[in-house]
Amino acid sequence: EATIVPDPSWTCGMPGGIPVPERGELVFRATLELGETHDVGKTQFGQRRLLDVKGGTLTGDGIQATFLTGGMDLELTLSNGAVELEQINILRASDGTLIYLRTCGVAPAGDEVVRIIPDFEAPNSSSLAWLNTGKFAGTRVVDAAAGTIELEVYDISEVAAGEPKIQLEDPEGVPDQSWECSTATGARGSSVFTETVTLGSSLSVGASKRGSRNIIPITGGTVTGGMLLSSLSGSVLPGGADYQLIGATTTLDARYALSSNDGEVILVRNCGPFGALIPVFETRADGPYAILNTKEYVSSDPGGAAGGVSLTFYERR
């Protein structure tokens, strides 16, 4: 029953604290159906796991929707036991409207209920445009036995972040994960690995509060090692997408995971405008590909390949 104040590195847009959601007005309840759970291991940020979302339903007085397959629930447990969460999902409302939903969350050590702040991008021209400007908070609970995630989201526009407060603090000496894309720049050095990524049909949210969101689902692919990681080979896991934002310029933001043939999982975020893509990798810190966590890289632009695109990553100079 306390306000949770996130660490400054992961504020979820509410640096003054996330109030108790249930003090607001219920907007919807949702049940997400889970596919595989990928234990990435202890990475440079903490203990990471990826939960695949393969579908789900959302029900509220003002919105009815389904979750499309390919969603990602990225749970990070820090060494002090606190949790930082990111979810990325695509909703299809009952009238066919597509909605991009990116959710941030935190929880104190020992609390299985993650307090979340959902951020919606719905078409400005749709009847659901109110989602773009609302102030929402909620809860996220994993039911491993049922293979589901339960969400409850509330309108907290009239709820203050009052006392008592629980202040979360990230462990010292550990790098912070970033909500935003990297803006680093650099030239290409040695090649690291090459991917051929297969893609599904594009999904267009249309003009929304940040620009026009175009989503290209990732359905699979292959990975081949380069000069720096010649031993790496494996597959691109189905799930995630390139969540492109089209405005004055086009910004790519591809989120997905790789599975190596020797059983490692590598999370990838490859983000930026054409000609300046910067990838961030996350994998087991004591694993064979830990160099992906500690060095800095650049990416080629996506080029054409059978059923999708091909990219090569390089060490950054």
TrEMBL record:
<dbReference type="InterPro" id="IPR020915">
    <property type="entry name" value="UPF0311"/>
</dbReference>
<protein>
    <submittedName>
        <fullName>Cellulosome protein dockerin type I</fullName>
    </submittedName>
</protein>
<dbReference type="Pfam" id="PF11578">
    <property type="entry name" value="DUF3237"/>
</dbReference>
